[in-house]
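Your task
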Amino acid sequence: MDKALQTMIDNMPEKTGKSLEEWFAILKTKSFEKHSEAVKYLKTEHQVTHGFANTIVSLSKAKDSPEADLVSEQYKGKEVLFPIYEKLLAYINTLGNDVTITAKKSSVSIIRKRQFILIKPATKTRIDLGFKLKDKPTTARLGNSGPFGTMCTHRVQLHEVSDVDEELKSWIKEAYDKSV
């Protein structure tokens, strides 16, 4: 798990008055159609700050979702890559409450109004991160879409957690901003 996310979880009882598991129990008593509705509920009814509310809802959905099973299947035999996936999601969850994360059989789509990122554990040692960045030139790192074809315009190959750096985050943010 990303250190910043773990620190947030560790600080949650002090900052919000409840542990993550206690927040999960509260959310289970309610039914929300949208991520943003659950975040708003925690903010207005429990005075939780946006950052904590968004994290609680995201982790709750990930834990309880049938999609979590799809993701765990994707990383069977590729467990070494899962911390990279977690770090990507931790950053993606900071972009806005209009992001939808949809797991499929072999990949995870990150959607705003349309898909802007695609996460795929491609091999036992590599995650392919596909981007929709129309009219952006390729570089040595930000390559052409490769096996993604027309689903994406670019691809970055990730081999370790440190590959989720500021440069990569700037491309993710750019793709998010262009997906309206």
